[in-house]
Amino acid sequence: MELEKYMRGRVTVLAIEGELDSATAAEARTRISELVPSDGAALLDLGGMTYTSSAGLRVLLLIYRQVQESGVPLALARLTPDVAEVMTGTGFIDFFTVVDTVDDGVEALTR
Question: Are β-strands 41-52 and 74-77 bridged in parallel, bridged antiparallel, or unpaired?
Fold first, then answer.
């Protein structure tokens, strides 16, 4: 799993690539948690995420809770069909604002 952080205005974009599973979940949670801003907005770009397991879903849920506590708006962009299917099947998708592109996410988070 690789993680890249960049800014789009006041939105912190975190691009995740690779698998988010039991082998990568602990490191991913720590790294994402450290990179999520305490103000502004956060967008997780999941276009490069090829797989997620229940451990990966747990990471996303913990990040969701973190931003809820700090009041930082969060959205998910570019979900692959496989990741979207897992998130939809488990109901996790309902926790998040989901958009098609990073640009759509930036727009949704800065309204």
Answer: parallel
